[in-house]
Amino acid sequence: xxxxxxxxxxxxxxxxxxxxxxxxxxxxxxxxxxxxxxxxxxxxxxxxxxxxxxxxxxxxxxxxxxxxxxxxxxxxxxxxxxxxxxxxxxxxxxxxxxxxxxxxxxxxxxxxxxxxxxxxxxxxxxxxxxxxxxxxxxxxxxxxxxxxxxxxxxxxxxxxxxxxxxxxxxxxxxxxxxxxxxxxxxxxxxxxxxxxxxxxxxxxxxxxxxxxxxxxxxxxxxxxxxxxxxxxxxxxxxxxxxxxxxxxxxxxxxxxxxxxxxxxxxxxxxxxxxxxxxxxxxxxxxxxxxxxxxxxxxxxxxxxxxxxxxxxxxxxxxxxxxxxxxxxxxxxxxxxxxxxxxxxxxxxxxxxxxxxxxxxxxxxxxxxxxxxxxxxxxxxxxxxxxxxxxxxxxxxxxxxxxxxxxxxxxxxxxxxxxxxxxxxxxxxxxxxxxxxxxxxxxxxxxxxxxxxxxxxxxxxxxxxxxxxxxxxxxxxxxxxxxxxxxxxxxxxxxxxxxxxxxxxxxxxxxxxxxxxxxxxxxxxxxxxxxxxxxxxxxxxxxxxxxxxxxxxxxxxxxxxxxxxxxxxxxxxxxxxxxxxxxxxxxxxxxxxxxxxxxxxxxxxxxxxxxxxxxxxxxxxxxxxxxxxxxxxxxxxxxxxxxxxxxxxxxxxxxxxxxxxxxxxxxxxxxxxxxxxxxxxxxxxxxxxxxxxxxxxxxxxxxxxxxxxxxxxxxxxxxxxxxxxxxxxx
Length: 729
Hints:
Layout: H1 35-47, E1 50-54, H2 61-72, E2 80-84, H3 94-101, H4 112-120, E3 125-130, H5 136-149, E4 153-159, E5 168-172, H6 178-192, H7 203-212, H8 217-225, H9 232-237, H10 242-245, H11 260-269, H12 273-282, H13 291-298, H14 305-317, E6 322-326, E7 329-333, H15 336-348, H16 352-373, H17 379-400, H18 407-416, H19 418-423, H20 427-438, H21 445-462, H22 465-482, H23 485-501, H24 505-522, H25 527-542, H26 546-563, H27 567-582, H28 586-602, H29 606-622, H30 626-639, H31 651-668, H32 670-681, H33 685-698, H34 720-723
Parallel strand pairs: 1-4, 1-5, 2-3, 3-4
Antiparallel strand pairs: 6-7
Helix pairs in contact: 3-4, 6-7, 6-8, 12-14, 12-15, 13-16, 16-17, 16-18, 17-18, 18-20, 18-21, 20-21, 21-22, 21-23, 22-23, 23-24, 23-25, 24-25, 25-26, 25-27, 26-27, 27-28, 27-29, 28-29, 28-33, 29-30, 29-31, 30-31, 30-32, 31-32
């Protein structure tokens, strides 16, 4: 096979070269973006003789193929030629369409394939084959025959699915990047509205419009065409009826490009009945989903489970579905525009409500399983799984909260996801769903009580004392009234946690010990129970009983090791680090805090992360680096608004911060301290974690540990008012 090379350049004295022949259409408007795709396309065509651009209708396959061919046609002595097959319905005239496109003048009566082979035998050209989806078998066989018999031929195909020919290089065409989408919209909008540009006044609306339209070029162009009568904001507001709104009015384009509905419908029309049914049913998903979810939700008598995988595979092959490799395995997704089209068809089948219920039930089951499996070595996997499933869990929550008949399911689901709201940095969203669920009267005490204590837990961590107290008191009273020992124990536990952050250490210790006793009585052991023991250790430590605190946390460490639990372990290590620092063991405190921060960062636990950073600042100060300590305080100050009330408004939790601030200011001076604080405030959490870990790796020798003489007891040595500092740094 001859290498795909550019023709030699003529000498300066030679006449100007004649442009290579071909029939590529002239471009009527500017080609925008896709630089990376064009570069990859050129590379692929250099290495392979058949490259296929695949993707959804309207994604820009044809334009990318023809523009790429226009750029590359001078590399071929005999140019680049387009074979457009969308209008060809009869497979019997397929070869004739190729002959016609290549302008082969043959009146001999030979079979058209013979004419094609003879014509291409000694030529070097690029053949662009577009719109072959409905003729894929015949087209694949013909292209394979041409490639075998004509060594100078290269083929660039564009369609919904690969041809399936040996040696084919498939290049999926994805939605445009955000920047390219905005550029395309602005370019086309300027053709409609003279002087249009993206400026500060409309940038947010344009960006959101491009996001909502998935970066689909056809959708963007049709939306831009509406600016003759609507503003960008008006187009954005009307996207809920996007298929009616985005009806093209440009003449001269292919019929399937006259409207977004037509573009998507072109793909739908070519699907089998089973594929259309699955397309419609899959529209109940939001974001990504996996095969198991699709099989449970979408199968039925007319679409048996054992056949669903094959049908789903066809939708992937036809670019209706996008297959993606993720950290949680192979997953699938639909672009919003494709999903909206399928949803319309689902409504027409009168099966929409049943599909939505099945979707909700699947994700209720998934949440239940993940809660049970959270207390295991699979914690990180569970966190990643819930993160990936969050769009679908939101849909399930919405579905459950649409009426009071299903309110108990919404309360159950919102409560069951406590480990995600609390453990993975989603306090605010968790509170939103919990409060919505509790607004409804479900008539199911168990689900409601769970939602109540979880709401109280979230409110405690956010520093909302009033909200926490109200939810926990209601939960405790109703649990005792109904005899729900589990809910009563959790309510008591979280009330003890509330006392802890409200600086009532004796009461916190009493309540937490009582709760732990109740857990033992009912046989409850999970991450929550262990966290109660860590919180008890914190209350004990704040009262100066470091040995008792260390013993409690070492017991937690042992249980965590036995069960592979990591999330609660990080908090136990925080308390152990607190005790180590108080005893002047700065190096041990740093090691514990760095591991604590690493674990918390893995789970996106902002609360655990920011607490570790606050204490690390004080440890760093003890090592003699006041500037770095101030930087870490600034970094912590940036995180707190995303968590809640800084340091819970607690003088005990605030004491390390206040002491660090006081001493760093004294060493650096107010101006330098503030500069370092500002610098830290520019660091995001990723940068801060990397900075902490990198600091340890970069230390050339042992650091001197300086003990700060302050006893962390129930009489704090420093407070926000005493030091004049702010709790957030």
